[in-house]
Amino acid sequence: MHVWVGYATAHGSTRDSAQRIGMRLSAAELHVDVRAMREVQAAPAYEAFVLGSAIHSQAWLPEAKDFVRLDGVLLGIRPVWLFSVGMPGALRGLACETVVGWKRVPGPTEVLEGL
Length: 115
Description:
By secondary structure, this protein is of the alpha/beta class. The chain contains 5 helices and 6 strands; from the N terminus they run βαβββααβαβα.
């Protein structure tokens, strides 16, 4: 399985988390690319996604939300796992649920409501 671990980071912490996730998935013998969301041009090439963003003002960064909006149809038919990185105060009250394991994303509107 070809998995993209995509991230949007403000200061590098989310990139570091994405790299650790990528190492764990690689150890499970998956083919993994860890790259920033703004760097990926051919998302359909991936069979599964692990997507994460830094949280600022209790929301994902704009580039992460834009990716989900633009590629929401694709994300709705592939396995997706979402993660967020932020200070405890920034995460408090965040509407997005913590997702454990693989999850099929129902569509961009429902995902963005939580972002």
